[in-house]
Amino acid sequence: MSTDLETFDFIPLQIDPKSKAISAAPPQQASSSKALETELAALNALHKSLHSLEAPHLVPPPPVPVNPKRSANLNKLRESGNAEYRKQRYAEAVKFYTLGLQMALTRPHWEPSQLVREEVHALYSNRAQAHMQLGNWPEAAVDAEASVEAKRQGNAKAWFRRGRCLVEMGRLAEAREWVARGLEFEGEEKELIELLKEIDGKMEEEKGKRDA
Amino acid sequence: MFDVNWRGLLLPLAYLAVLVGTFMTFSTVYRKRKAMQSANLAPWFGPHLQRNIYLSLLHMEPEEGSEKAPKVPDSVIRAALLRRAVEDIHRIIQIRTAKAACSSLLQRGSVGDDLWQRFQRAEKEMEEELRDVVMEANALVPGWGQIIFQSANEIAANKALRDRLEEIEAQTERDKEWWEKRRASIKREFMKELDEESSEKAQVKAGSEDEPVLVDTDTPSATPSGASKKKKGKK
What we know:
heterodimer, A: mainly alpha, two-stranded antiparallel sheet, B: mainly alpha, 0% strand, TPR-like_helical_dom_sf (chain A), Hsp90 protein binding (chain A), Hsp70 protein binding (chain A), TPR_rpt (chain A), transmembrane (chain B)
């Protein structure tokens, strides 16, 4: 183990002359560990993404300020999605939101993760809403959960949407747990409290049915 | 007067010699053992794979048949250094979270002294590692040292976020399948109920077959949700 700063463990590597991809050298290849392989894959991916840097930069610039081009495109996609939604063309809205998500998630990794969270949570939440209009409960539930993952606080809509979807799918216990957790994050949010009450009522009802 | 009685002094002198000798052997042996112990302490972190890769790339060996070592382009070296910085960020986070826990455990005597020693050594090594990365970065691209860790930090955070989102999205297929099955079973039950009902009053109503289909496209718990759905649509 290389605890010394002067030494390191030499790893026989080779480089593909054309693609410049790094891989473990042949004698090692068979025995090369999985960790090494995944790390080399990550290295090659990063190397490739470094090529997308614009001309004067050899290395990633500081995270802020951000190149505004992608943000503008993203906003445009979200706006078109919202417009389709307002026209009640939900399937089209889902398509726009999905495109927006793809664009947000392929943002280079050295750009601020906080910005990605902001963009992604709105898109996921909107897509969940559109899915709900289409009655695609599982997709909507997953999207709302992703939205919450990107932004826990101040995202009451997404908490509510997943809760609603779980109720629609009849997963009441899960829904109750989820909404209760949402209330912890969001404080006294009217919509969530109402939903919680509704869930409790339904659970009572089911219990009554089972007992009967 | 100065006639020393050497014979009489022999015994105390021998005693002194033995005493000093014992002390000295004890102290050397003790110190050696102590040094051995701290040298044998397991390192806090495993081998630094990214660092090894980076340094291995700098010291590429010539391939068989050719004299010169293959030329590694600078962009690859830069990417490798950035990967190394990202791993350092992970380690810094680990050290920071472990520090508070470690010191409070040590104060309470719940952990041994050697754990604390290992920890402190890891901290010191980490500092040197960071300095080394900054120096290497500055050598590769002037001024990069100031921002490489900012970039690495974002890369680490972004990777974590995307992994989490992927994990969540991976549920979709499973959930969808489950929902299809469940919906089918609900439909079947519904049909059965309807069949029972319709057999009771079969003579009254004949064309009730197409009605259940309409209801089924909606949700299992369709009755109370209809109102709220309309409300949501306006948001």
